[in-house]
Design brief:
20% strand; 184 residues; alpha/beta; six-stranded parallel β-sheet
């Protein structure tokens, strides 16, 4: 089993979360972590789980204008400097049957702050006919440029472990069902 984690990150926080999720998934599968501008738009036949994440901008997935605005908030360079998750998902080929998916985001840790890039990505991936393996998950930063709230990388790794366990269990059940169906 192979998992692909695709992330968009402005200041490095979402990238760090993506790598922590991958560490959790490694118990269950071979994992590739790819920045969105290097991500394939056709998934290989060996990919059976896609995990997508990005920062929440203006209550959802980033746009060209929100990425330009993010560039003004740092003296350093941005991690993702091209298209974002929104554009990548609009170009991705419809998956073959059986590919599971999950979405995560980073967002500012403020009570009742609406919007989520993970919810928007989840909805788009469901529309693309991925089998959603988990509800969208948010990881929190203290401010626009970060840093991550203490403990969020551990929480991301744990989420990756739980996601991997659920995915492996589902794959095992599907495999047993196919084997049982071959006997009849």
């Amino acid at each position: 089993m192979r998992a692909l984690v695709v992330y968009e990150s402005m200041f490095g926080n979402t990238k760090a979360v993506a790598h922590a999720i991958a560490k959790g998934l490694e118990t269950w599968a071979v994992v590739d972590v790819v920045e969105v501008n290097a991500a394939p738009t056709v998934l290989g036949e060996d990919v059976s789980l896609l995990v997508v994440g990005g920062p929440t901008h203006a209550f959802g997935l980033s746009r060209e204008s929100t990425r330009r605005d993010a560039a003004t908030k740092t003296a350093g360079s941005l991690v993702s400097t091209g298209e974002g998750i929104r554009e990548w998902l609009s170009r991705i080929a419809h998956p073959t049957a059986g590919i599971a998916a999950a979405a995560f985001d980073t967002k500012i840790n403020k009570p009742r702050l609406p919007g989520s890039a993970a919810k928007a990505a989840h909805k788009r991936m469901r529309w693309l006919r991925f089998q959603m393996a988990a509800p969208p998950e948010s990881f929190f930063v203290t401010d626009t440029a970060g840093p991550l709230v203490d403990g969020e990388l551990d929480r991301a790794r744990s989420w990756g472990e739980r996601l991997g366990a659920a995915w492996a269990s589902r794959n095992n059940a599907a495999s047993k069902a196919r084997q049982g169906g071959d006997r009849s």
